[in-house]
Amino acid sequence: MWIDCKEKMPESMEVVIVLYVGSWPGRGCGGIADAYATGVEWYVPEGVNVVGWMPIPDVNHLTTHKECSVALEHKRSTIKGFIDSDDHDFLEAIFVENDSNQNSV
User: Fold this and answer.
1) Quick one: which of 49, 59, 55, 51 has its CA closest to 10?
2) Which terminus of the chain, N or C, has fewer Cβ atoms within 10 Å?
3) Which residues contact 88 (CB under 8 A, 6 or more apart)?
4) 3-state secondary structure the chain
5) Torsion of the alpha carbons at 5, 12, 56 and 25, rounded to the nearest 10
């Protein structure tokens, strides 16, 4: 179920699934993507408006082929920082796995 951004925002720097409108280069003019926010500000391209979000679901219960299972393994993570480069089209995020005992959305 989508969560309205006007009602609730995700934990700061938590990567979530977002429903957006506007032109996101390389992704299209509206759709679904992964993103994060701090407070009430989403880190998305200029001109993109996030209208809803949801936590990334747990996929551990899915039956997958062995070679696909690594790609589907996901643990909640939080962005802790970035590595920038001279190429402004490239920015690498640094993730830290969240404690599985923490309560989250």
Assistant:
1) 55
2) N
3) none
4) CCEECCCCCCCCCECEEEEEEEEECCCEEEEEEEECEECCEECCCCCCEEEEEEECCCCCCCCCCHHHHHHHCCCCEEEEEEEECCCCCCEEEEEEECCCCCCCC
5) 70
Report pLDDT digits (tens) over 40-56: 999 999 999 999 999 98
Residue with tokens 């790609």: 71
* Nearest-angstrom CA–CA distance, 20 and 32: 6
Question: Residue 81's pLDDT band (boundaries 50, 70, 90)?
Answer: low
